[in-house]
Each structure stands twice: as structure tokens, then as C-alpha cells.
Known about the structure:
Layout: E1 5-10, H1 40-48, E2 57-62, H2 66-72, E3 81-84, H3 90-104, E4 109-114, E5 118-119, H4 122-138, E6 142-147, E7 158-161, E8 170-176, H5 181-190, E9 193-203, H6 204-214, H7 216-223, H8 234-241, H9 250-255, E10 261-265, E11 270-271, H10 276-282, E12 291-293, E13 296-300, E14 306-308, E15 314-318, E16 323-328, E17 331-336, H11 343-354
Parallel strand pairs: 1-2, 1-4, 2-3, 6-10, 12-14, 13-15, 14-16
Antiparallel strand pairs: 4-9, 5-11, 6-9, 7-8, 7-9, 8-10, 16-17
Amino acid sequence: MNKNYYAVLMAGGVGSRFWPVSTTDNPKQFHDMLGTGDTLIQKTFARLNRFVPTENILILTNERYNDLVLKQLPDVKQEQVVLEPAMRNTAPCILYAALKIQKMNPNGVMIVAPSDHWIEDEQAFENDVKTCFEKCEKEEVLCTLGIQPTYPNTGFGYIEYQKEGGVPLKKVAQFREKPDLETAKDFLDQGNFLWNAGIFIWSVRTIVNAFKKHQGSQFDLFESGLSCYNTNEEQAFIAENYPKAENVSIDYAILENSKSIYTLPATFDWNDLGTWGALYEKLDKDEAENAVVNGQPLLIDAKGNMIRSAKNKIVVVDGLEDYIIVDKDDVLLIYPKSKQQDIKKVRGQVQEKFGDQYA
């Protein structure tokens, strides 16, 4: 296993569209959403651990999830859990992690990956990442894995790449915001657009230099703590200075400004598992297209439903079609699949009416 390979697992999100299973105190990455016996963060860690040494995997998460990380990933040591004392989007935490890795190994190359995505062909994923690692070791470039669109999705950002034949890694022309439906259809017709999966690969030297060039004040803030990183003084420095960081995404801070970005069209199937509907697409279904996780169903005249309950709980459904049915502790959700994007809003309404403990 290559000692220069590092991974940074992004595990700080709340996953509010998966409410009521995903809550502020226990978000979706720490749940077995697919009913496989492993949580999403456990599956992601194992996928990266195929080619990245255990000790070279850092977990970026919020302070409140520290104990959850250590419980679910017993091979991880406390110093590998990089804690954010405040929510500041993706750019600050990536810079922070990159500086920590650079101090450990200036020759390191790193992948930044969300902890809650579904990837089936793990060998193909490994091959794609290694292809990018090899380019990043030789050249001062930033790489991203792009997903071949299967339909005009309006919920993802897109990567537009330059059309040039014969090369696996394509030069990125620009990143495009989430489009409306007609624009998304046009992207697919053009044939040189990929979904932005938020999976990035670069050398620590290149990404640190990119921050120095494009985000000077952010770089100065985190670079001032270099002597503290990977020591007992790190926590105090971060507690004082991290909240001062600008709240900005890595896409906006670095990727939209850089001229040396390449994308590799992924050779593996991918799903961001962003909604109950996305999860439904990946689950086995019965003859009436119902997907059930954990429960023991008795379904009568029920079609196309996404059902999740406690293990072994008997679930009787009659006459419902295309609904999300989630039974968790003291919250029961029965909601049309067609309105799944509104679950985040409903969660907020429940929180306001009944209290934070339900959100």
C-alpha cells in the first residue's frame, strides 16, 4: 500500500432530507441506510482503505460527532478525527486537513470524498482514483471524478470538459451551477457534461498552493497554526481560529478560479443518496415496486413505496402508492415521494412546533 496516499472523509453533514432517520445528533452517514449491516461511513472507510493505509485516512466532522466516528470506526485513532468547532462549508476544512497532511508528508496525494455516497464497483473506483493520483504526483493539477449523467438531473452541479479524444482525463472548461430542466437536457445533448460528485484528488502541495494563490486570507489564517498541527496545541489553535474562517465551498473558493483542473469520467455506478427517493432507486423491490428496509411488511394494494422501520417490526400498508413511510422511535413520516425535496422543510416545521430533540 502506497504510504503517500491519503484520504479525507467528509462526515460533517446533517442529511436533513433523510429525516426522521437522519437527525442533527445522528445524521445519515452514521446509519445503515441500505440495510446491509454497515453504516454509510463504514462502507466508505472500507472502500478507501483498500488502497489508502488506515493511518492515512482522516475523518473531517463536527465536534458533536467525534464519539460516533470513534465508535463506528474502531481502527481510527483520535488524532485522525479532524474536528470542526464551527460550520464553515468545505473550503476551510479541506485546507486545514491538507496542511496537516503536508506537515506529515510533503509528498502526499489526497482524495477528498463524501462519507455518505453509494458506490457499487469498488475495484473500478480504486482504479479511477489511482489514475488521478498518478497524474497529481507528476503534475500540478487538481482532479475530480465526474459521473456520466443518466438523465437531466436538476439537483446536481455539472462539470463541462473540453472535447478531446483519446485521453482518459479531460481538461475542465468550467463548473456549472445546478441547472433548470431545459438547461440540463441541453447539457446531456452536448455530451461533454458530467455530474459533479464532490470527489476531489490532488497533491497536498498543489492544493495548498492553490489556496495561497486564490484564498490568501484563508491560507494565512490556517498557515499561522502550522507549528501547532499534529501536536497537543492544535485543538486550542483551531478552537480560537476556525470560527474566523470564511464560510465558502471548495468549488467557489478554488475550483472556479483554477486553470489546471482535470476530470475523469467515472467507470463505476454512483448515487449520492441525497433523498429517500435516491435510496429507493438503489434498493431491491418486490413485484409491486415497494422497497422495504428492516421491517416485516404486509402490503395490500400498495405500489412504489419506500418503507423503513425498526428491525423485525410488522408494517401493514394498504392502498398507498409512491409514498415514503418511515417509522423511527417517536416520529412517523408518511409523505408523498413526489414531494421528497420538501422533507427538509417539514423537519424544520417539526423542530419549531415540537422541539429540537425531534430534528
